Amino acid sequence: MTLDxxxxxxxxxxxxxxxxxxSAMSSEQAEELAALLKALADPVRxxxxxxxxxxxxxxxxxxxxxxxxxxxxxxxxxHLKVLHSAGILDREKRGVWVYYAxxxxxxxxxxxxxxxxxxxxxxx
Length: 124
Known about the structure:
Blueprint: H1 27-40, H2 43-54, E1 59-61, H3 62-68, H4 73-85, E2 89-94, E3 97-102, H5 104-113, H6 117-120
Antiparallel strand pairs: 1-3, 2-3
């Protein structure tokens, strides 16, 4: 939480931002959302979030993710750290392994930004 009591991206259950076509977001909201979108903008990280979110248990071990990518374990760990730092993933250490789970509130915050009647009716 920030000093003024508002929730931030790293807080559980945050609801970052108003829809783009709603009221204008504050500078702080824009910075927080940009950090979240930047973390998701990498194809490897986006796929990691998808794999973790769609796993049967709703979580994945680093060892499971190593098998899904043709990357070094260090590179996978780096991507997971970025996602965790952005507030997208929770992590829990169990023995020698770390398990990651997607924070639904983080994805909801992103979806909320793009869920606007004006945007829904737009055609490409």
